[in-house]
Design goal:
The protein has about 170 residues and is of the alpha+beta class. The chain is built from three helices and eight strands. The protein has an eight-stranded antiparallel β-sheet with strand order 1-2-8-7-6-5-4-3, covered by helices on one side. Strand 5 and strand 6 form a beta hairpin.
């Protein structure tokens, strides 16, 4: 687990890893099923594909509904920016060219199973966190640090849940 960057403008990232005793094709079935993700996350409440799409492909869009005790409830539209079955699934939040965040799952065959990595980057576009920073600019580094640690904890939980489901 790692995270780098102290200010929002630095586009801080978080990355977590786990090894799963299941084939990349089995793990892919789980990570590419966006409608399953809310069952693995405290923050993400619901997800649905847009425009009649039923599976990930580059350019496909989906809406995610989230909830956080300090940030309230919100919805974002994401666009799939990378989709290589059994290898990588990534999406940009709000605007593919200037996202509020970018998320990625990467899968690698390893030791008869799958090494799964989840990565996210904040920014560069403004997000809900930007409003908290606007209110307390002197606390920006702390606000970003706390949020990145939340992402790290939540992503670790998500990977644990993916591991349990894929290994069943």
């Amino acid at each position: 687990m790692e995270w780098t960057g102290a200010r929002y403008a630095d586009k801080p990232t978080v990355e977590v890893h786990t090894w799963i005793d299941a084939s990349p094709s089995r793990v892919w079935q789980v990570v590419s099923d966006i409608e399953l993700m809310p069952t693995m996350s405290q923050e993400l409440q619901a997800v649905e594909w847009l425009d009649g799409v039923t599976a990930p492909s580059v350019g496909a869009k989906f809406v995610g509904h989230s909830k956080h005790e300090s940030l309230g409830e919100w919805a974002t539209t994401s666009e799939v920016i990378e989709c290589n079955a059994e290898r990588v699934f990534a999406w940009a939040v709000e605007d593919r060219d200037n996202p509020t965040a970018t998320w990625r799952f990467s899968l690698y065959p390893k030791d008869g199973g799958t090494q799964l990595t989840q990565w996210m980057q904040m920014g560069p576009a403004r997000s809900g966190l930007s409003f908290a920073i606007d209110r307390m600019p002197d606390k920006e580094q702390k606000i970003v640090f706390v949020r990145m640690r939340e992402f790290e904890r939540n992503m670790t939980t998500t990977l644990d849940n993916i591991k349990q489901l894929a290994e069943r």
